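job 3f2a | input accepted
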Amino acid sequence: VQLNLTGGEPLVREDLEALIARARALNLYTNLITGGIPLTQERLARFRDLGLDNVQLSIQDVQPAESDRIAGLRSFDRKLEVARWAKALDFPLTINTVLHRENLDRVAGVITLAEELAADRLELANTQYLGWALLNRQALLPSREQLDRAREVAAAARERLKGKMEVLFVLP
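job 3f2a | predicted structure (172 res):
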């Protein structure tokens, strides 16, 4: 019933438009899960015209320098621009931030950023320890106290934003 276009980075696919059009022809709900970097506003508008239903944008941290460091390139400002394009084109917008030891204490700031971007949904996704993350678990694993504080902040935001923005806190 749905097609999640994810990756790596799905925007590098030359057949992405064809996949979106075919999904619409099959009446599938389509969700683009992206870092947004290679996207243009024109291509995003084309996706909308072809039937894309939702945009989910990954933002690594609320602090620009840290977000850029984690992403491996200067990208924070571009991600904010992509989020604004999505809202201007009337897409439902999900912001996704993968949480770990280095950014977990900034959950409140991530929530504020999602509100400023008029996100419809915020996914606070604790790191899932598979592959690269498993190999780097010592550096990524937060303390129990960090996890508990972040969970409390997310729960308060979920209650405060009920009916305005869905806030999900994905457990590790």
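job 3f2a | The longest helix spans residues 144-160.
job 3f2a | closed
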